[in-house]
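Hey,

Quick one before I head out. I ran the complex with DOR overnight. Inputs first:
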Amino acid sequence: MTDTITLRRPDDWHVHLRDGDMLGRVAGATALQFARTIVMPNLAPPVTSVSAARAYRDRIMAALPRDTRFTPLMTAYLTDDSDPQEIARGAAEGVFTAAKLYPANATTNSAHGVTSIAAIRNVLEAMEAIGLPLLVHGEVTDADIDIFDREAVFIDRVLAPLLRDMPGLRIVFEHVTTADAVAFVESADADVAATITPHHLHINRNAMLVGGIRPHAYCLPVAKREAHRQALRKAATGTSDRFFLGTDSAPHERAAKESACGCAGIFNAPFAIESYAQVFDDEGALDRLEAFASLNGPAFYRLPPNEERITLKRGETIVPDLVDGIVPFHAGETLGWSLA
Ligand code: DOR
Ligand code: ZN
């Protein structure tokens, strides 16, 4: 039995670091575990310009210790009014590592999101030309589509046609939650990848609804039925290099979660790598954790893997009920790995 694993320091290819007071409370947890992260731009107002992304990056660095070796990789929030030249300039100046497509009203702070692919066609053409990755929140928002079907319908109605139309577009299908999404990514060509969160590997929809309604298990896309969770675990721990780590850690104040209309989002940053390690251990795939956490993401983003190493040891990690006032994923549970 393996009791110690050493891997290249991982990166988090999808995280919400928030802003203001919340940024100060959560950024440290991510910077402690990860070397680089793709930072989501869904602030209020959203990060749509190069100058806003630069200023946000500065606020993130200011929230961390001066000697941190952490690098936030910034993203542009696409709207119907996004200017292809602004996106291309941000990429050329090394500010934008990617651009994020939120379908309008799909999730937290997405009211300014994109209403149709046609509205951003010129932006997507510019991105295709320069190879800037498009990060996709893959859910339709049509009122007549059941929330558990929104990802699968998005593939048929939006993603598949988009790729047929613009086969050179580089796409990350973010936080996939279904067997359908796994199959889509596996059948697509090499420029289509996906992130998988720790929570979608650990919980199915029962976690949200059995024995009472559990707001801390609520996120978007919502966790699906068990067969989908099993497909995600197979994809994450399998041999495809198209799946990589993206926590989608999305902190909200406790009162905003424990509410008659609770916010979507799971705060998993404090014990993210331990949570993933548990999954890989349970699947007998600890030897593939490094590929998922530290190699596949950089390869897709055309960045070098990190040289620094981290060590995980078998041993109890007790997850507290609160981390700086926020309820973390796995609150009150014990994980089987600890970060040395
Ligand atoms: O659960 C989620 N929370 N899903 C998202 O897509 C956004 C995120 C947030 O920003 O709270
Ligand atoms: Zn997210």
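The first strand starts at residue 4 and ends at 8.

Talk tomorrow,
K.
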